[in-house]
């Protein structure tokens, strides 16, 4: 596994939230907070100076909001991964954030350990979209199909909604993607920052929910039903 901590930039206009996240996340040996910003304009300067791997971005901020900041970051530094962290769950914000190029969208009520795991997951190339938000977005975004800038985000969300047909948790969907990629239990554990025992439990649950016997069947069924 990579022993170099990922570089994280925290962007939030509330001092308490910004500093609290700094303290909590910097305690994780795999995460190094390289900068703090109270608005999107400062975030852009920090990205230029610090070149973070991941940006944790609030939406509603003065001077420049998180959606516009995300759009400019992805245009200038496409390798930087962006996770939107907000208290707002309205559909329009989700669409805007994903349309701007964000790889994930999480609510601030998330447990710190789950947040840290989510940051690492996105850094590894994954995406994070809560399934309740995914369901709402797919229902409402279908009516806006003419807006092609939303196409990729909507497609990704539709995949997650299909996964929800079997009652798969977000973590189980991540494990299923790894199975489809041909990873073994040890490799899945390393990629998702889990123990091998936990991975085995997730796989057993996936088999049961999808009514399959092995990895080949699980992968085939997931592909056939558009879950991957």
UniProtKB/TrEMBL annotation:
Record flagged with keyword Chloroplast: no
PANTHER family the record matches: TRANSCRIPTIONAL REGULATORY PROTEIN NARL-RELATED, TWO-COMPONENT RESPONSE REGULATOR
Residues annotated with 4-aspartylphosphate modification: 58
Source species: Paenibacillus germinis
Alphabetic keyword roster: DNA-binding, Phosphoprotein, Transcription, Transcription regulation
Signal sequence annotation: none
Domain Response regulatory: 7-123
UniProt xrefs under Pfam families: GerE, Response_reg
HTH luxR-type domain sequence ranges: 161-226
Protein name: Response regulator
């Amino acid at each position: 596994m990579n022993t170099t901590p990922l570089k994280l930039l925290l962007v939030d206009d509330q001092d308490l939230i910004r500093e609290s996240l700094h303290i909590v996340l910097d305690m994780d040996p795999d995460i190094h907070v390289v900068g703090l910003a109270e608005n999107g304009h400062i975030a852009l300067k920090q990205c230029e100076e610090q070149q973070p791997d991941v940006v944790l971005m609030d939406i509603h901020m003065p001077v420049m909001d998180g959606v516009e900041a995300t759009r400019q970051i992805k245009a200038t530094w496409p390798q930087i991964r962006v996770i939107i962290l907000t208290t707002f769950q309205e559909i329009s914000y989700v669409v805007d954030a994903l349309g701007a190029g964000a790889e994930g969208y999480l609510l601030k009520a998330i447990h710190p350990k789950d947040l840290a795991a989510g940051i690492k997951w996105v850094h590894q190339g994954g995406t994070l979209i809560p399934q309740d938000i995914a369901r709402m977005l797919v229902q409402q975004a279908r009516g806006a199909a003419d807006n092609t800038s939303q196409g990729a985000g909507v497609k990704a969300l539709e995949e997650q909604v299909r996964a929800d047909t079997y009652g798969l948790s977000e973590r189980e969907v991540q494990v299923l993607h790894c199975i489809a990629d041909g990873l073994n239990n040890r490799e899945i554990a390393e990629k998702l920052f889990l123990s091998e025992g936990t991975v085995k439990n997730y796989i057993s649950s996936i088999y049961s929910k999808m009514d399959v016997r092995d990895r080949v069947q699980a992968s085939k069924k997931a592909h056939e039903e558009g879950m991957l």
